[in-house]
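Q: I have 151 residues here and want to know how they pack in 3D. Can you give me a structure?
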Amino acid sequence: MNTPQEIEDIAMSRIEEADILVKAGRSDGAFYLLGYAVELMLKNKLCRLLDIPDLFKEIRNGERSDGLSDLRRPFMIHTLKTLIKYCGLQRKLASEMETNTMIRLAISLLFESWSEDCRYKPCGYCVGIDVQILIDSVKNPGGLIEWIRQN
């Protein structure tokens, strides 16, 4: 079962893991995990907005017993920009970026470069210092994770 709270807990664990990796000089893995954490936070937001109790519920006997299969399907994507749109946050985010340097930094470093395909890129594609700055702009107070929670 992956309730919205469980999804958020996983996202926060991935951020902690990204922080450990970047400090160990493993920026590529840290970058991938950080993008994945933001993806999970956006999916958490969707669950809460649409009152979906279990986004990743397994199909049993070929069917989902709760009748939410069609509702879940569009959210099984990894594109952060699209998930922001699905959450109804695109305009708010654009407005926030005008005044919040930390959010603007997170978006410019993450949304333009991250995809689930990052896990297949050759080692060394990330610069360590940029990933540490990104981690800080995502997890610190006033950062992207807090903004997603509050909006």
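Q: Anything worth noting?
A: The helical segments are 4-23, 27-50, 69-72, 80-86, 90-99, 101-111, 128-139, 144-150. The radius of gyration is 16 Å.
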